[in-house]
Each structure stands twice: as C-alpha cells, then as structure tokens.
C-alpha cells in the first residue's frame, strides 16, 4: 500500500486531537544529533534514538553516542539497552519505541525520534506483522551457501529477486541478506513487497522530517572528519576493552557496525591503521548512500529547509 494512503488512514483513525511525536532522520554525519540537542535547549523535548549501534552498552566512542553530560541535560531513550554480545531486532525496537514515546507524551513532553537506522523507522511506520517468522533450517541452508559462495554472491542473487532490498543492503551485510533471502524462500514473495503491507495505526501521530545534504562532497568531508575524531577519541582502545569484557565475534550485529568492523580487522592484523581508516571511511560513505536511498523512498518524510533548526522548530511549535 502507498505510504501516503497508510498515513491518511492513520490520521482518520487518530482524529484531530491526536498526540504528536516527531522524527528527525538523515544520513550519518548530517548533523541530526546536534540539531536535536539544539532544539531541546528551546523546547521540552526528550529524544528517542533510532540507532542500531547506540543500543549497545560500552560502544560509546565508535557510535558517537551523546555524552553523559548531554544525556543528563536532555533525556535520551533506547541508548544502552543491551550488551554488545546480545542481539536487538527491528521488532524489539518497534515495541520499545512505542513504550518510550507514550511515556514521554504522558508527561506532556515532546518526543523527538532521531537517527539514521532507516529499517527501524520503517518498522515503526509499517510494522513487521506481514513477515514470516525465522526458520532455523532455511537460515542454516543460507549460511552453508554463504560459506561456499560468499555473501556478495548471495547479495547478487537478492538483487535479482528484490532489487529494492538489494539497493538498501550492503553486499557485506550477512544478517540482512540472510533475512531477505529467508523471507523469499519461505513465502515466495520479496521482503520489500511484504513490508509495504498496512500496519495497525500508531497510538500517536508521527510527523517525520529529514536532513538531506545537497552537497555530497561536503557530506563525504564530514564523514572523514567524524571518523578521524572517533579514532582520536579512542575507538581502538574501546574495542580492545569490549573484547576483554565480552565474548564477542565479528559475526555479531554489534561488531558488524561501521567502524567496529574495520577496527576488528586492524586488531586481528588483517590491515594496518591507514588501511583500516580508509576502509571505515569508504564503508561509512556507502552507509550514507544507502540511507539516502531509503529516505528517497519515504514519501511521507518532509525535507527540512536551511536553517534546519529554525525550520523544524517552527513545525514543532
């Protein structure tokens, strides 16, 4: 179903007296967190993170997590939810985000969902009810094929089945490639087609906006500068500490996060520091490209006009 139709149906269900939550999306390094904190200095905002990496405790430097002082000044939700040796799903985010938003609304505050994990945002808007449950046998079959052929080959297979999903999923993202292929093999339908099914209306109205950088070269420069700050702030030391404290492996979702994946390879002696930096920056640029692809597919998300802070503040008042 067209997202605009879904949104229209939700508005009918919610009515004119509906409570409102806001969402701020954008590619990595586009300034979302800075903008959210700037707004929170002027409005009674509490932030709900839409970030699949910031849910992990101890992964502070590599995720550019808000500082403790910033989190004391402005309440943040869905940060430090679980340990990095655990797994977190989009379905769990959906449940946790609903609880967080309704809690904020109950205290007469403004919920502002902020982040760049587009799958989490889409899950919140469309739900996951239409997707089949995981099948261990099918997953084992896909894992066996990946061991023989490699994940890039399975990504190429996915591109034939579901070009839309393949455009959003990186060739070296085994978790999402596996899920997309699993859904197709179980249901005979692409994951993209199933994810467009209408979901139950949210118990609040959600207005979504996005920072859409017009200058790609400027965004690439910000990505490079951001990763250099992360390195200088102690990414390698942080990962060393995490590996000592937890039973981690490179296959865990937490360690597949951009930056940590490349730092892991460096610690394993697979590349030098300069190569690690080069790989991480390239991977972050690819992530930003996929995020922009997602954003262009969200017809209900409105782009912000510079200066973005003034534009969004006016819309929220």
What does this structure look like?
With 317 residues, the chain is an alpha/beta fold. The chain folds into two domains: 3-129 and 197-316, P-loop containing nucleotide triphosphate hydrolases (Rossmann fold, 3-Layer(aba) Sandwich), CATH 3.40.50; 136-193, Histone, subunit A (Orthogonal Bundle). 55% of the residues lie in helices and 9% in strands. It contains 15 helices and six strands. It has a six-stranded parallel beta sheet with strand order 3-2-4-1-5-6, sandwiched between helices. β2, α3 and β3 form a beta-alpha-beta unit. The longest helix has 25 residues, at 273-297. Mean pLDDT is 90; it is low at 1-17.
**Radius of gyration over all CA atoms, rounded:** 20 Å
Overall average residue pLDDT: 90
- Going across the biggest sheet, name each strand in turn: 3-2-4-1-5-6
CATH superfamily of the largest domain: P-loop containing nucleotide triphosphate hydrolases
Query: Distance between the terminal alpha carbons, to the nearest Å?
Result: 31 Å
Helix/strand/pairing category: alpha/beta
Percentage of β-strand residues? 5-15%
User: What is the succession of H and E elements?
Assistant: HEHEHEHEHHHHHHEHHHHEH
Helix segment tally: 15
Q: Report the major sheet.
A: 6 strands, parallel
The total count of strands amounts to: 6
């Amino acid at each position: 179903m067209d997202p605009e139709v879904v949104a229209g149906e939700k508005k009918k269900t919610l009515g004119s007296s509906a409570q409102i939550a806001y969402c701020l999306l954008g590619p990595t390094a586009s300034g979302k967190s800075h903008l959210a904190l700037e707004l929170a200095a002027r409005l009674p905002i509490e932030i709900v993170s839409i970030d699949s990496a910031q849910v992990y405790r101890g992964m502070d430097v590599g995720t550019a997590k808000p500082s403790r002082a910033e989190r004391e000044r402005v309440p943040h939700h869905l940060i430090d939810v679980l340990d990095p040796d655990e797994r977190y799903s989009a379905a769990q985010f959906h449940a946790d985000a609903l609880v967080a938003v309704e809690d904020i609304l109950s205290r007469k505050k403004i919920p502002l969902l902020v982040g760049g994990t587009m799958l989490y945002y889409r899950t919140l808007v469309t739900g996951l009810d239409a997707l089949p449950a995981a099948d261990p046998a099918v997953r084992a079959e896909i894992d066996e094929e990946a061991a023989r052929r490699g994940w890039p080959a399975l990504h190429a297979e996915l591109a034939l089945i579901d070009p839309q999903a393949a455009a959003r999923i990186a060739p070296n993202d085994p978790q999402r490639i596996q899920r997309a292929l699993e859904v197709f093999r179980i249901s005979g339908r692409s994951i993209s087609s199933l994810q467009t099914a209408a979901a139950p209306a949210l118990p609040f109205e959600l207005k979504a906006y996005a920072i859409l950088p017009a200058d790609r070269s400027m965004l690439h420069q910000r990505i490079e500068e951001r990763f250099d700050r992360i390195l200088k702030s102690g990414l390698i030391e942080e990962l060393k500490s995490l590996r000592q404290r937890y039973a981690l492996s490179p296959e865990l979702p937490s360690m597949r996060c951009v930056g940590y994946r490349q730092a892991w390879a460096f610690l394993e002696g697979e590349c030098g520091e300069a190569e690690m930096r080069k790989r991480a920056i390239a991977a972050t640029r690819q992530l930003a490209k996929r995020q922009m692809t997602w954003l262009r597919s969200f017809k209900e998300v409105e782009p912000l006009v510079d200066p973005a802070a003034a534009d969004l503040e006016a819309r929220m008042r």
